[in-house]
Design brief:
This protein is α+β, with helices and mostly antiparallel strands and 337 residues long. It has two domains: 22-164 and 284-319, Bacterial polysaccharide co-polymerase-like (2-Layer Sandwich), CATH 3.30.1890; 171-281. 68% of the residues lie in helices and 9% in strands. The protein has twelve helices and five strands. Strands 1, 2, 3, 4 and 5 form a five-stranded antiparallel β-sheet that branches. Helix 5 (88-97) packs across helix 7. The chain starts with 8 loop residues before the first helix and ends with a helix.
Length: 337
């Protein structure tokens, strides 16, 4: 057992006996760190605060149907934006846009330098979520103007990518509807051509037959009597009445089908117009609360923190070293027992 009772008095005695050593050992590293910190360049942080918009707000049923969905996004929307913002694809897009390989003096063709560039960029790039469902994007750089430019570019790319995701289904629907519209147009053209051919071939014969019947029929003549008149019309081909009637009936059926296809065509065209209006309206999926701006306040390095840390570390290390050194004979004696 080292001591029967625990007491700090021996520690204070050692500190008092070596106070000059402790003072020099503490002061010299603190001064060195303070001097070194002035050679470290200042850093500035540009940031932007924003909240996501409910992705369902881009749905046609909501935009044109007056849906009552909550306009701001929930946890799912926040997570989606955070995943986009923290993706390597976005990081490399910013690295290429601002030529950060040259800025950090790395080789863009060396795999190790590519990884080092990405790591260094992400050390100065953060996206955090607050307690109120909002997000904060921050970029730190030695150049405050460059930091703001990179923050603006990051926000633009996040908005672009999120919009692509939000409107992806709409663009797929647009392609399907355009194909359906083309199909309806072709069907209507085909039906119109068939109906016109029937009318050109049989409509004149039908009118001529009616004229001959009416010219020979007397008022109040029964249907059977009219058929008899038709049978007696000269130069009337065999079964002409049944053929003409059948063809004109077919034309009526086809015309009804054309009306149905035309109604479908109009509905598809309206849906296409609605979706195109949404895409052209550029509905925002993010609402920026605090836009990026040039930072004039230094965000680093924290020289005071460095000096305090160096002082405390030196003090603790020196005292610990002196305590161990003063008690080495005691430890040897305890070991040899």
């Amino acid at each position: 057992m080292l001591y029967d009772t625990f007491s700090l008095l021996p520690v204070f005695k050692i500190i008092a006996r070596h106070k000059k050593t402790i003072g020099y050992a503490t002061l010299i590293p603190a001064l060195c760190v303070a001097v070194i910190s002035f050679f470290v360049p200042d850093y500035y942080t540009s940031f932007c605060r924003f909240i996501p918009v409910n992705a369902s707000q881009t749905m046609p049923s909501v935009v044109f149907g007056g849906g009552g969905n909550y306009p701001f996004g929930g946890n799912t929307d926040v997570d989606r934006i955070q995943n986009i913002a923290n993706s390597d694809a976005l990081a490399f897009a910013l690295i290429d846009s601002f030529h950060l390989y040259q800025y950090y003096d790395f080789d863009p063709k060396a795999p190790k330098d590519i990884a080092r560039t990405l790591k260094k960029f992400k050390q100065n790039y953060t996206v955090t979520k607050d307690l109120y469902g909002g997000l904060k994007l921050s970029i730190e750089n030695k150049d405050n103007t460059l930091a703001m430019a990179m923050t603006n570019a990051a926000m633009a790319k996040i908005i672009q990518k999120d919009r692509e995701i939000a409107t992806g289904n709409l663009r797929t629907m647009l392609e399907i509807l355009q194909k359906s519209l083309t199909s309806c147009q072709r069907e209507m053209d085909s039906l119109t051509q068939i109906i016109n051919n029937i009318n050109r071939t049989y409509r004149y014969s039908s009118l001529s037959l009616k004229h001959q019947v009416l010219s020979q029929a007397s008022p109040g003549m029964s249907y059977e009597a009219q058929l008899g008149v038709i049978q007696n019309v000269e130069n009337l081909p065999k079964d002409s009445l049944s053929v003409i009637t059948e063809k004109m009936y077919d034309a009526g059926v086809l015309d009804a089908r054309r009306s149905d296809v035309n109604a479908k065509y109009i509905q598809i065209k309206n849906n296409l117009f609605n979706i195109q209006s949404i895409l052209e309206a550029d509905i925002k999926t993010l609402q920026i609360i605090e836009p990026p701006r040039v930072a004039w306040t230094k965000s680093g390095p924290n020289r005071i923190f460095w000096c305090i840390g160096a002082t405390l570390f030196s003090l603790f290390s020196t005292v610990l070293f002196l305590l161990v050194r003063e008690n080495i004979p005691f430890f040897e004696q305890e070991i040899n027992k």
